[in-house]
Amino acid sequence: MNGFERGNSLLSLCGLNCGLCPMRLGGHCGGCGNGNQSCKIARCSLEHGGVEYCCECVGYPCEKYERIDEYDSFFTHRRQKADLEKVIAVGVERYNREQEEKIRLLSFLLDNFNDGRRRSFFCTAVNLLELPEIHEALDEIRASAGLALLPLRERSSYVSEVLQRIAGRRNVDLKLRKKA
Questions:
Q1: Could you give the CA distance from residue 37 to residue 75 in angstroms, rounded to a whole number?
Q2: CB neighbour burial string for 41-63, b if at least 16 within 10 angstroms, e if fewer
Q3: Could you tell me the pTM of the whole model?
Q4: Per residue in 116-132, pLDDT tens?
Q5: For residue 132, cis peptide bond before it (omega within 30 degrees of 0)
Q6: Separation of first and last alpha carbons in the chain
């Protein structure tokens, strides 16, 4: 989209967590306003003086956010509002540091436990779980005797079960919610 540029590649204008996106990890995302489709929120940003994040707009939250987190696409949308609120509370720099840590942990999961079918699941888990929960899961995984000796598919399944169990304690569903 002409005239629209982003400075932060970890968090989108609308609050999507770009650093944990399977499309971005796969090199298939052009980012806000640079993808195959024009983004209505990017257009809105330009109309409102080019705000970096929707939460900087005087009209936030607007009607575009009424049901924004109800369904997921190829990536979870459940944290959009919460992540924008976190940016307001702690600032972009601290938010980005936390996201860089999550990206590092996600990379570890993908490099060691992705059996070719779990990238989206791991991206969703790292996005929806808090850092201490992800560290707890990784501590348990690293302490699991004999895990490294198992075939990749079994290691992947075990890691998925650990993440599911930890998410279950907070009633967090790690499946993407698609429109019917």
A1: 16
A2: bbebbeeeeebbbbbbbeebeee
A3: 0.90
A4: 999 999 999 999 999 99
A5: no
A6: 30
